[in-house]
Design a protein that fits this description.
The complex is a heterodimer of chains A (about 280) and B (about 280). In chain A, about 65% of the residues lie in helices and about 0% in strands. Chain A is mainly alpha-helical and about 280 residues long. Chain A has one domain. In chain A, helix 2 crosses helix 6. The radius of gyration of chain A is 20 Å and the shape is globular. Helices cover about 45% and strands about 25% of the residues of chain B. Chain B has 11 helices and 9 strands. In chain B, strand 6, helix 9 and strand 7 form a beta-alpha-beta unit. The chains are: A mainly alpha (about 280), B alpha/beta (about 280). At the A-B interface, strand 1, helix 2 and helix 5 of A face strand 1, helix 2, strand 4, helix 4 and helix 5 of B. The complex binds adenosine-5'-triphosphate and magnesium ion. The site of adenosine-5'-triphosphate has 13 residues of chain B, from strand 1, strand 2 and helix 3.
Chain lengths: ~280, ~280
């Protein structure tokens, strides 16, 4: 038989990236199918079924719209609703990808103890689940966008760039937190609060132009500022996003992916003895 | 053999005195689990422990220096008390657990019955589990679709049960499906860990026949079982593992009777202690 596998003691460090990438690629259907099955089985018991996928973020957007209207003392108009909705849908995708991704390895302990496969596929699959759930909400946004009288221009297509960057950023963070969660299991408990605060620090309930004074540090300290800011500029206002936002967003996304992949790859062989 | 004509001799398999090729080589294998002392390792507890200078993880030395070679076409029975390290050894062979020390060399593709046997995801249907298990093992969709009918036929659960969540299966049905998947993955090395014990007599017979078929195709089988008669009936050699070490290895009848003697002695010792 040609293929010989040799297993030697675990050492912290990266595996050979070429063969690993081939392993991941060969099992891409696994990640996809895992995501699809997850979506198909959830909500099957509820009356409205898959409709909840779009109802959830929609209702949430209205809640936040009412909240911001009360806090600012004015209804704010349809433009603000469109901004909140676009930002919230994307943020909702991001946070569910990160929170789910952080749990992805620990919650698959049975699979990990019984099958040899690249563990990177687990957080990737969770991010995919969140992304597939996010897609239908784009349709809802399109309707609201037109009803709110926002401009429909080709520049809206720029939105694909921040969307892809958020996807990469979320994947990196999911891989990092999935690994960290094995060593410090508090991670899971902290996350929901962290994500809630992160939402308030990001340009979702307010506009990117509104940060001034002592809060200006958010522009460079919060990765989601350029990412969600450029998303709103493109999708809601229909104009090409500012170049610095795309650049900063891309830098954050690449760094997150590299750090996350490094953390997971350098320790994944040890996961099975630590579950 | 000398009486064969030249053309017949050409088709003949290699003579018996040429040893079969190597299938698995294990050299001084140690595996240590790093179980957390608390049920949940958290930052807060870790900080408190750090202050007191206590050790955080409890190491379970599950295998302590196991070495053996197995040739192709062998059926190797593995016996030993609960917690002896049999499953750990099988997981190490499958490449799931990294050695803490030592070296494992595996020639060919391993299929573990562990993969489904211990339970992939009980909320999913039998069909979904088969698909996901196959994809995780690195097969592509067409291959799985091709084998699916064979798998379902062999398991004989009835069509409706394949589309029911595995929660609704009895443990025997579970084991049937798991075994069926494992033997239809066309593995070079098949690992069966404690799965036949719950099948009924008819299925046991059927699975024996299937294993003999596989072994006639020069595949190697590892069979972990507490059913000692199964080991003597089916295996070409046997190993007795105790407290993480290989105590005895060789003819199944001899190893099993030695293990039986040990069990009896152990039992009386325990009873004496109790008095
Ligand atoms: N995930 C784990 N984390 C920590 N320790 C473990 C883990 N799995 C097994 N062990 C320990 O490793 C040792 C060997 O366990 P193993 O499962 O290999 O036994 P076994 O021979 O298969 O027993 P059984 O006959 O009950 O199946 C035991 O002492 C067990 O407590
Ligand atoms: Mg076991």
């Amino acid at each position: 038989m040609s293929d010989v596998q040799v297993y030697t003691p675990f050492r912290r460090g990266l595996p050979r990236l070429g063969p690993y990438a081939r392993e991941v690629w060969a099992r891409r259907q696994f990640a996809l199918e895992l995501a699809r099955t997850e979506i198909r089985t959830e909500n099957t018991g509820t009356g409205l079924g898959q409709l909840w996928l779009v109802l959830n973020p929609l209702l949430l957007a209205f809640v936040y719209y009412v909240l911001t209207s009360i806090l600012s003392g004015s209804p704010g108009g349809a433009a603000r609703l469109a901004h909140i909705m676009a930002g919230l849908f994307l943020y909702y995708f991001f946070s569910s990808a990160v929170i789910g991704g952080a749990m992805s390895i620990l919650s698959s302990s049975r699979l990990i103890l019984n099958t040899a496969f690249p563990k990177m596929l687990l957080p990737i699959s969770v991010v995919l689940v969140s992304f597939l759930r996010f897609l239908p909400s784009l349709g809802i946004y399109a309707v609201v966008h037109v009803l709110a009288g926002q401009p429909v221009r080709w520049q809206m297509l720029w939105g694909v760039v921040p969307l892809a960057l958020v996807l990469v950023f979320a994947t990196g963070l999911a891989m990092l937190l999935a690994t960290v969660n094995l060593y410090f299991r508090d991670t899971k408990s902290f996350l929901p609060y962290t994500m809630r605060v992160w939402l308030y620090l990001s340009p979702v309930l307010w506009l990117p132009e509104q940060v001034r004074g002592s809060l200006a540090f958010l522009r460079w300290a919060n990765p989601l500022f350029p990412l969600l800011g450029s998303w709103s500029e493109a999708v809601v206002e229909g104009r090409a996003p500012q170049a610095w936002m795309l650049g900063a967003g891309a830098a954050w996304a690449v760094v997150a992916l590299l750090v996350g992949a490094w953390a997971l790859l350098s320790r994944e062989r040890e996961f099975a003895v630590r579950l | 053999m000398s009486s064969l004509s030249a053309s017949e001799a050409f088709l003949e398999t290699p003579p018996v005195d040429v040893p079969a090729p190597l299938s698995v080589r294990v050299e001084d294998l140690h595996v240590t689990y790093r179980a957390s002392l608390e049920r949940r390792p958290t930052v807060a507890r870790r900080l408190r422990r750090l202050g007191r200078g206590e050790r955080v993880v409890r190491e379970v030395h599950a295998l302590r220096g196991v070495s053996f070679d197995v040739l192709q076409g062998q059926v190797v029975g593995v016996v030993g008390a609960n917690g002896a390290g049999k499953s750990t050894l099988m997981r190490a062979l499958a490449g799931i657990l990294p050695p803490t020390q030592g070296r494992i060399e595996v020639h060919g593709r391993v299929s573990t019955l562990l993969a489904l046997g211990v339970g992939f995801n009980a909320k999913l249907t039998g069909r979904q589990n088969v698909t996901l298990g196959g994809l995780a093992a690195g097969l592509d969709r067409e291959e799985i679709a091709r084998r699916y009918t064979e798998i379902a036929d062999f398991a004989e659960l009835g069509e409706d049960f394949m589309d029911m969540p595995m929660l609704t299966y009895s443990s025997g049905m579970y084991a049937r499906l798991a075994f069926s998947v494992a033997v239809h993955m066309e593995p070079d090395i098949l690992i069966v860990d404690e799965a036949l014990s719950t099948g009924d007599a008819r299925f046991k017979e059927k699975s024996f026949a299937r294993m003999q078929e596989l072994c006639a195709q020069a595949r190697t089988i590892f069979l972990v079982s507490h059913g000692l008669s199964t080991i003597t009936q089916l295996c070409t050699e046997a190993m007795w593992v105790d407290k993480g070490a290989l105590v005895e290895r060789g003819d199944p009848a001899k190893v099993v009777s030695a293990y039986r003697r040990f069990l009896k002695v152990g039992a009386t010792a325990v009873t004496q202690e109790d008095v």
